[in-house]
Amino acid sequence: MTPFSIALPGRVLFGRGESARAPGLIRALGGRGLLVHGADPARAGWLVRALAHEGARVTTVACPAEPTLPMLEEALARIARPDPGEGEGGEWVVALGGGAALDFAKALAALIPAPGGPMDHLEIVGRGLPLAAPPLPMVAIPTTAGTGAEATRNAVIGLPGHGRKVSIRDDRMLPRIAIVDPALCDGAPRAVTLGSGLDALAQVIEPWVSARATPFTDALVRPAIGPGLAALARLMAAEDPEVRDRMSWVSLCGGMALANGGLGAVHGLAGVIGGLTGAAHGAICGALLGPVLAMNRRLVPDPARIDAVCELIAEVLGGAPADAPARLADWARGCGLPGLAAQGLDPAQHAQVARDALASSSMKGNPVMPSVDQLCRVLAEAS
Questions:
Q1: Which of 155, 170, 277, 381 sits CB 3.0–4.6 Å from 344 for a disulfide?
Q2: Is 34 helix (H, G, I), strand (E, B) or coil?
Q3: Contact predicate 374/300, CB 8 Å
Q4: How far apart are CA 362 and CA 338, in angstroms?
Q5: Which residues contact residue 251 at a Cβ distance below 8 angstroms, ignoring those fewer than 6 apart?
């Protein structure tokens, strides 16, 4: 057996109501810290109040969109020069929100103690240096089931000037505590549920077919693929707490798997497209998933793992396994997922997107290295 390693959050709490334990666990890390929330600060009000009740001093930081380098630099400057009475960055960072808020918080936790700036540590466009100081303890509380960012060791940051999304990456960026309470996802808007759910599905499919798959990642993701798609299909029809629970588990499994194995062409392309268009990451992944599955099935010498995925898709959506990639794409479109063109990707950009994606870290996990022309075909099918 090929050797492999396992990297996980320091502690994971999973289940309905587990978020009620957050204030005490956070306060045990220190008396001052940052709370990163999404666009609506009211959704984080319960945690701010609970932390205050525990005697903690909290500085809030908004993450109204997927994080970018200017957002990160502005937040770091604010923390370095706090408003009167606000206090310094503190002893911990907690994120309550979707994958964007979790990534933003992980980046802040990593960079607040770091002597350099973000460009010292960003991959591809920056120097990609390891962190010179340990990150602050970070607590991740996701409110969507999709990115699995509560279990990953990187933070994805957009660089509008470069038209790219790249990562700050360090093993020490894994959250100290991940609290996955599916109740926080209840009632999420349909489009958010669909996009984040398709991202979660991609993140259990890609590690399964990845060239970097391990027995550990296999054990996580193989049992999650069929139930994940079935849960998402159910949520497109009706709200169901038990199904939300299942979707949160699939998302967590995907996060743990991608942190310990690899992804593939879906995420290799999505990082580039997201940097160019600013479209939601989950929606991009959802549009790409079917066409990438079809491409890999055509190209890999032994498609046994991809065939297994296609059989699972066919069990949920019907039809023949050979038609599963197209059926998945059609199903997602029928649920309201826009294609890449509607998400802002110009067909004239396809070749450049393909070239840039081939240099991404995610693409290295794809089961076969595609050509620019083959990726352009995927982009055309996903448009």
A1: 277
A2: strand
A3: no
A4: 23
A5: 142, 144, 145, 146, 147, 148, 180, 196, 200, 203
- Type and span of the H or E element at 57: strand 57-62
Position 154 scores a pLDDT of 94
Cα 287 from Cα 272, distance rounded (Å): 14
- State the pLDDT at residue 90: 87
Q: Which two three-digit tokens encode residue 279?
A: 């479209």
Q: Give the model confidence (pLDDT) of 87-113 as tens digits.
A: 455 899 999 999 999 999 999 999 999
Q: What is the DSSP letter of 325?
A: H
Range 50-64 burial, b when 16+ CB lie within 10 A, else e:
bbeeeebbbbebbbe
Structure confidence at residue 88 (pLDDT): 53
Calculate ∠ Cα 266-271-275, nearest 5°: 145
What is the C-alpha end-to-end distance of the chain, expressed in Å? 41
- Average pLDDT of the chain, as a whole number: 94
Which runs of consecutive H residues, i.e. helices, occur in the chain? 22-27, 45-53, 69-80, 99-111, 190-209, 215-221, 225-237, 241-260, 265-277, 281-299, 304-317, 324-334, 350-358, 372-382
Pick from 260, 209, 229: nearest CA to 368: 209
Least reliable range by pLDDT among 7-11, 66-70, 83-87, 269-273:
83-87
SS (H, E, C) 134-178: CCCCEEEEECCCCCCHHHCCEEEEEECCCCEEEEEECHHHCCCEE
Structure token digits, residue 201: 């599905």
Q: How far apart are CA 45 and CA 48, in angstroms?
A: 5
